[in-house]
Amino acid sequence: MQIVVATISHTPYAQIICDTIAESSKVRGTGIARRTPEYVISKMEAGNAVIALEGDVFAGFCYIEAWGHEKFIANSGLIVHPDFRGKGLAKKIKEEIFTLSRKRYPDAKIFGITTGLAVMKINSDLGYKPVTFSELTTDESFWKGCQTCKNFDVLTRTEQKMCLCTGMLYDPSKESKSTEKNTVKPPVFNRLKQIKEKLFLKKNK
Ligand SMILES: CC(C)(COP(=O)(O)OP(=O)(O)OC[C@H]1O[C@@H](n2cnc3c(N)ncnc32)[C@H](O)[C@@H]1OP(=O)(O)O)[C@@H](O)C(=O)NCCC(=O)NCCS
Predict the structure, then answer these.
(1) Global pTM?
(2) What b/e sequence results for 9-32 when a residue is b if at least 16 CB atoms lie within 10 Å of its CB, and e otherwise?
(3) Residue 64, domain CATH
(4) Which domain holds residue 49?
């Protein structure tokens, strides 16, 4: 498996990346925003994306977005093709995009929002901490990206204070201060997810 910083040579994979994201986003409760091939290509051209390939077969992808005058960085659009899941690939892609983010934006806070236990576990291992949405970027264009998520109505109803996703933040200025390792406990996560779904998802959906 090859996991590399994507370049212009990877643009032919933009369509399958978007198709795989769109297919995965159909699952109710999964917070994942859709992207266009043009947007994905712009990330590849800027050197702000990581792609995983098995030979020439698409396996996974993730990209960087900068918000609030580059004070905040998001590692977004993580996707692993169903044929390659459960083998540790998402973890490797996230490690790669995290390293790239730290190199390109050393002073930025790195954050993500996710409904997935897998992503929470990976982020936690990288040093992210769960935070309220108020600690994330206030840049409206970031939150507009949620419009294509199935759960966007929840974010609107709560005036952007909470949603099914959990916010997680890596703050480089606090890096050396915290030594304890927080592990995500699956039963706690699943209970919290159930409570959120019960509270926020309308029954007729
Ligand atoms: C979420 C996703 C990226 C995980 O990819 P993956 O390559 O299967 O993940 P990994 O094998 O690297 O697993 C990382 C960790 O999460 C756990 N994990 C993986 N899938 C999981 C699942 N469905 N439920 C709970 N835990 C899971 C793994 O056991 C592993 O934990 P460990 O480090 O304690 O062993 C993939 O399922 C996917 O593309 N889903 C659809 C898109 C999506 O939800 N993207 C995230 C948007 S924020």
Answers:
(1) 0.87
(2) ebeebbebbbebbeeebeeeebbb
(3) 3.40.630.30
(4) 2-200
